[in-house]
Amino acid sequence: MREHPVRLMIVDDHPVVRDGLRGMFDGLPDITVVAAAADGREALALARSTEPDVVLMDLRMPNLDGVGAIRRLHAAHPATKVIVLTTYDTDGDVSRALAEGVAGYLLKDTPREELHRAVRTAAAGGRVLSPAIAGHLMAGKNQRQKDPSPRELEVLRLIAKGAGNKEVARTLLISETTVKTHLKHVFAKLGVETRAAAVVAAIERGLL
Description:
Rossmann fold; Arc Repressor Mutant, subunit A; 2 domains; elongated; WalR-like
């Protein structure tokens, strides 16, 4: 059991959201809101003076966005745990945040009690994910475990030889849009984000 209450900082660019979140933690004996920031830069400044144990961090903010703030916060305060609290659950947002080593990723419709539990879990060194985010990750994992289809590999072979989208489309008698779709699927299945990385990953897996 902790000797002192969890020191919590809230970071969100909407005043109503900040006030609402602060109200959710009012009166709790084991969690104290020590600061509330409107953007990433303010969060970094307040973190230096308040030394929070846990930060509830929005992602899309002016001046310095959530991912940038998380990166700098972890560098300056490695012991501080960050829970992303956002309305966005797109794959890009999730992967960028998780890549920064956050302790959790929750959506803003998370019930009050679950939010309390998440902060306590993060402070204790655990990790929390909303069911929707967990589903995203599982779907992504399952997708990445699949190999590209024969047609997708045809596209990748041509890309490996230096062909551009137009040349691939002309060679395979398909549209450029279809080429882009095939590449998007290849990237997802191989867990990469660029053509070069896709070629390397395919070679390493013996697909090319």
